[in-house]
Amino acid sequence: MTAKPPDSNKQGFATRAIHTGQEPDPLTGAVSAPIYPTSTYAQEEIGKNKGYEYARVTNPTRDRLETNLAALEGGTASRVFGSGMAAINAVASMLKAGDHIVAGHNLYGGTPRLFNQVLVNFGLTFTYVDTSDLKKVESAFQKNTRLVFLETPTNPLMELCDLRALTELSHRHGVEVVVDNTFMSPYFQRPIEFGADMVVHSTTKFLNGHSDGLGGVVVCTKPEQAEKLAFLQKCAGAILSPFECWLILRGVKTLAVRMEQHDRSGRKVADYLSKHKKVQKVFYPGLPDHPQHELAKRQMSGFGSMIAFETGSLANANKMLRKVRVCCLAESLGGVETLISHPATMTHAGIGEEGRRKIGITDGMVRISVGIEDVDDILADLDQALAAI
Description:
Blueprint: H1 13-19, H2 60-73, E1 77-81, H3 84-93, E2 100-104, H4 110-117, E3 125-129, H5 134-140, E4 145-151, H6 163-172, E5 176-180, H7 185-188, E6 198-202, E7 216-220, H8 223-236, H9 242-252, H10 255-274, E8 281-283, H11 293-299, E9 306-310, H12 314-323, E10 328-329, E11 339-341, H13 352-359, E12 365-369, H14 375-386
Parallel strand pairs: 2-3, 2-4, 4-5, 5-6, 10-11
Antiparallel strand pairs: 1-7, 6-7, 8-9, 9-12, 11-12
Helix pairs in contact: 1-2, 2-9, 12-14
């Protein structure tokens, strides 16, 4: 792998995850960042305060998290929201009626649902293209195009986009690039290093890592982006609670070690599935036969633990998913436990049968987020479940 860990102030990734924004409390010396659940703040007199007025606008625990996540992605600032979808909505809210977005054709199902069923009502327009094909991206640009929004790898087909090439192309046309980096986390991929203008995450996933809190973040590269998003936090109020902020701060401290284990186990599970006679196809950029394996090695420092595979039919998928015991059949991903799901009826149910057919999501497809349990137990569970097909 050629990607290198980030270097900011001579500190490595794990050090920043543990310490940036997570300094001991200056009042008490508490090593764990305090939770400030207050809704308002006392003021000494009219117009004089200690930097805090009302919790929808600012909160000390939230400030710590935003500092931490910006440092991990290599941004200048970040703003956190009540969910990953709230974060994406905030990015779109920075635009105005009549603006156009070029979006990846293979996104998490909730994203096109937001775009097509909500944001079009406010005058935004969207064109969906395969963002791995730069010619298709360029042909989709219009005079009013303001953003390219993409995932790499995509959910669940694990298709990659050449980030450097796409950002260079977009910037020549005066278009900014926003990357949903949820699948890789900033530990394995930092799109800003390749030219991305903003990065979004569902912090619910790997950043939190324990399946116990919702959240979203937008990491910025320009002060004006952070200012607009702070204004949206204040006006729209889709903010992250102090407790949820603390949960993510806690989770991020172990992000480096968790991602290493996710990656080790993910490679083993992908290799096992690729050789299993009941599995027709495996989608994982860490496999040498993945069509973008070399690109993955260039722009990611690990392959992660997100895998999709084809069982051949809805009946086969259902037989297998009914049998899993260590793997948990559930929505979401990125937790310490292995989560297994059925995209056609879960994450991508909202785009409809025709929409799934167009991008290649079948009724027999299964997605797995490999956890950090003993990998032999995960493999044994998959083996006995696949035997039901």
